[in-house]
Design the sequence.
């Protein structure tokens, strides 16, 4: 037990140090650069109420309410479009890979009374990324958090990093509101890679414990022609442990569509998703199928599992 506590204390120190590095680093990036199965099935929505380790990517502030819990998660994503025999490292006419895979592992620790934190690592054909998040509840119904992400190319050279701030508010029992600012230190190098500052409002409303509605509008000032967008989703509670999900997004980030030649991180477009999830007392299983409609047609399948204790 003492060894376990020492490990998590060390993890928290590493995370705080990484945040400090992100603030001082002149490069920055864009948040929500990974979609779990639940997030993919909601087409990117759910910032006001992430499920367990999803908080690391969607809204670090929510980690402050996942106390007294340690969770370990993993997921696998496969996307495809066009000729499946083509080398995934070679771009198509849009500069994107025709198909590829992404793997992610994550760890979240909410037992500390000082703050709660999580870390995730994702890898795909275009490189890898390290995701960090930490949060603290200010009062009973308000939490604040910070997040940081570091991006690397296939040779492990650092390409960019990002820093974000978020808050979560519980104004009523059935409603949650999140406010998130991604890429606080946007610069011209970021914009050349498709990394922009984004202001996001996350809304969740629980209808009689049967239907959960999500609406997450966002503003990206640097995208003059498509600065406004949204991610919207619905979650049906079939039984206490079984969920059916669907979502649609417009002018929103599709994180797995990365550029091969320009090392761009994700593409903005429209998509929809469907999926399901099952939650047991000690672990959860989730699956999603998502389809990008614009600017290119892609299909992805994501499978994930999270254990918590």
Sequence:
């Amino acid at each position: 037990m003492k060894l376990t506590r020492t490990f998590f204390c060390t993890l928290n120190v590493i995370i705080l140090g990484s945040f400090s590095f992100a603030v001082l680093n002149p490069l920055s990036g864009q948040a929500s650069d990974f979609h779990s199965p639940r997030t993919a099935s909601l087409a990117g929505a759910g910032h006001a109420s992430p499920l367990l380790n999803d908080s690391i990517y969607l809204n670090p502030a929510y980690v402050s309410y996942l106390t007294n819990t340690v969770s370990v998660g993993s997921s696998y994503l496969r996307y495809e479009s066009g000729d499946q025999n083509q080398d995934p490292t070679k771009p198509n006419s849009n500069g994107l890979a025709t198909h590829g895979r992404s793997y992610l592992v994550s760890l979240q620790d909410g037992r500390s009374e000082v703050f709660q934190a999580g870390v995730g690592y994702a890898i795909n054909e275009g490189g890898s990324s390290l995701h960090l998040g930490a949060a603290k509840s200010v009062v009973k119904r308000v939490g604040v958090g910070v997040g940081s992400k570091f991006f690397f190319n296939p040779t492990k050279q650092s390409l960019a990093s990002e820093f974000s701030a978020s808050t979560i508010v519980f104004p009523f029992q059935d409603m949650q509101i999140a406010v998130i600012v991604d890429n606080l230190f946007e610069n011209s190098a970021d914009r050349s890679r498709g990394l922009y500052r984004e202001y996001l409002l996350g809304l969740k409303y629980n209808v009689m414990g049967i239907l959960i509605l999500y609406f997450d509008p966002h503003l990206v000032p640097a995208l003059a022609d498509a600065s406004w967008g949204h991610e919207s989703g619905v979650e049906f509670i079939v039984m206490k442990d079984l969920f059916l999900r669907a979502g649609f997004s417009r002018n929103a980030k599709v994180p797995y569509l990365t550029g091969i030649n320009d090392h761009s991180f994700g593409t903005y477009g429209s998509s929809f998703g469907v999926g399901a999830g099952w939650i047991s007392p000690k672990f959860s299983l989730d699956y999603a199928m998502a389809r990008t409609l614009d600017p290119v047609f892609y299909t992805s399948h994501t499978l994930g599992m999270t254990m918590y204790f």
